[in-house]
Each structure stands twice: as structure tokens, then as C-alpha cells.
Amino acid sequence: MAEEIKSLEGLEAVAVGVGAASASFEAPREPVRDSLGRSYATGKRKDAVARVWIKPGSGKVIVNGKPINEYFARPVLQMILKQPFTVSNTEGQFDVMATVTGGGLSGQAGAVKHGVSKALQLYDPSLRGALKAAGFLTRDSRVVERKKYGKAKARKSFQFSKR
Q: CA dist 11 to 14, 15, 21, 23, Å?
């Protein structure tokens, strides 16, 4: 009986400790890296999904086996991709390897940006504050609305004729 009471007291102490820990600040995050020193994350935007690996390097960006200036020819899309690095002051410090599927070029650029942001935050948790404040860790959930039956498009109706 005395052993049961001691074990119950221990459980209460653990439960109190858990409650106290969750009430105060969280434990510092640990970097998440694989055996090759890379961090991996998945980024999404619209219908595009990007698998992104980052590792320390010279700043090379490869998307679907092509350099960034070949795959994303428009300078605006290249700028979108580089935003996480400028916000976190890590320009030219990481190599990026990404594979993107689905959607158009704009959605794919946004997906890679989301993936790079998440991977940077996993590689170096101290960058989380800057990336979160810029809104790069939040997935842009806007997707194309589906077409409804009885409608010409998602919301547009057919022309109304009284007679």
C-alpha cells in the first residue's frame, strides 16, 4: 500500500511539473538535419507542392534540375524565392534543391518560398522569429473555388431572361 501511495505522489509531481512547463515558456527548439547536414521541408501554395532541401553552400538554387534563372525566368518569381534569405540575413549561405509539381509558375514560386522558409527554420531555429513575423511560415490557403452545378463557373450564373 505504501508503494502505491509513493507512486501516486510521483505521478502527481510529474503532472504538476508538466502543467508548470506548459504554462511557462517552451523549451528551445533543436535543429532538424539529416546525416548529410540538410534540412527538408514541404511548401505549398494553390495547387503547387514543393519538396525543398537546404544545406550550407554558396547560394545555388536548383529547381526541378534547372538553375533558378532558367526555371523561373521572370525576375519577380526569382525575387519571391529569395525573400526568406533576405529576411533572415542568410543570402548566399545556403544551397537549395527543390522539386515542384502542380499549379502554375506563380504558385510554384510561392510553394518553393514556403518550403525554403520552413527548411530554414528547421535548420536554424533562431531564424523562426524573423520568418514568422514576415508571414513566410504560414501556408497561403487560397485555392481556386470549385465549379457548382447549375452555374457557369464557381459563382457566375447563366444569363437571366424573364421571357
A: 5, 6, 15, 18
